[in-house]
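Quick one:
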Amino acid sequence: MRNPAADLEAEFAGVVEALHEASFDDPDAALARAWGHAQRAYRYLLQRRPRESEVVQGRQRQRGGGGGQAQQRELDGLELAQRRDFREEASTLQQQLAETAEAQNKIEELTRRQAAINEDVAQLISEAEKLEREAREEAERRLEQLREAQRQTMDALDAVNGEIASGDMDPQQARRAREQLEGARRQMNRSAQNLNNDQLQRARAAGNRALDALRDVQEQLGNLSRGAAAERMRMLQDNMDSLRAQQRGLVAQAQEQQTQRGTLSDSERALSEMLEGKQRTTDQFRDMMEEASALAEKAAESQGLMAQKLNDWLRETSREGIFEDMQAGDRLVRLGAWQASETHERGVAEKLDQAAEKLDGVAQLLVRDDLEALERAQERLESVMGGERGDGDGRFGWGPQDPDALRRFAEGGFRDWMDRLREAESLLPTDLGVRQRLTGIREDLAGIGRDYHRKGAVPQYDLIFERAIKPLTLSAEELSVLIRERKGDYGLSAGKTDEIPEQYRARVAEYFKALTENEK
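Output:
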């Protein structure tokens, strides 16, 4: 049987050992290990703390309310399974983050080397026309040095690319990094060839393109993978739960002081403890908001919809004035107005409960992989199509058709379509054609709304059909095809690509026919 206290002590020792190993020149790997030990220690502490019933109830309400004891037992079983898997998952993520940090450092060094080569080439170009015969021999020696430097930089890039290919980075992030590095290498090779042919202007242009590609790799590696973003979200939720528990403690302290009849020294001690506790809570809330902001920024590529909604959550939570309320409560404590302080702190606790519930809703938008992202994007398109089913038949028989429905659509109904399309876009890869088409549909919808508010004329159905209904239907069907292909890649599809169920064959044929006509 495991000893929780021993596990906790071991994690603390791991933090200390990793921090001792960290060096000023290259601290990332050691700090990543220390961070992993610290997070596991924090988890052990949370498990040793009694579960707060309010937290459990808040999570249950967010997941759909009561569903009977059987449903609750199922949820408890899932939570226990998640806790058992947490250590292994966290360890894997920490290893991925450590390798990503190491790759970033090496690519940063490559970037500096390529930038230095580009600068030397540019200087050589500016001096070439003014050189005398003796100086031209020196320039030739410098040119040979640049050729060798470019070859060495290419070799170093190949080594980094190989390490990424054989390492344990997040697979999707590693694949993108390797593709970008291969693009940088092609430009370096062109630069080297132009240097060998004494074509300095072309060498400089290719070198600049290589430099841009390396900077793109750095930026991409600075983003969080899907798994890392999910882990950061779990940490954010844990921080919020801890914050709520501390705030409830402040409410209890203020309530307790109303019945205390101690000495002046006891009163001063209680006041000091209350103020210190409030300061810790205020600082932790500020840090949590900063962590949420960083997560929204760094997860925008891998968890687009979650990041978008997290930004919305940040704005909404900031408007609630929780931080300002926390600071304002100090005055009541200093005055010893404990009853007013209890009321004030209880109000802050209620705001935190509401913010935590909404944060749990944001966390539900995390996706595990590309397949789930495609499926969720398709759900949003189908929510538009299913919610706007008209009197017509067939695949295009939906959308506003009678005059009243068209007017309601132009007055504001189009905005609901735009919101769902924006969510679908944020779930799809930026280089996917269907995402770009959804962007075009959304822009056309905005144009329809602008025209109505400027001219007051209700748009004709044919316009909405051509700008939205038809392309949206085709996009949803294209997503269906992509999902089916991806399920085949994952081994989730039983049949071959030509084994289309009978009830869908006509519709799939129509889809490919329409897609072919659009491409002509």
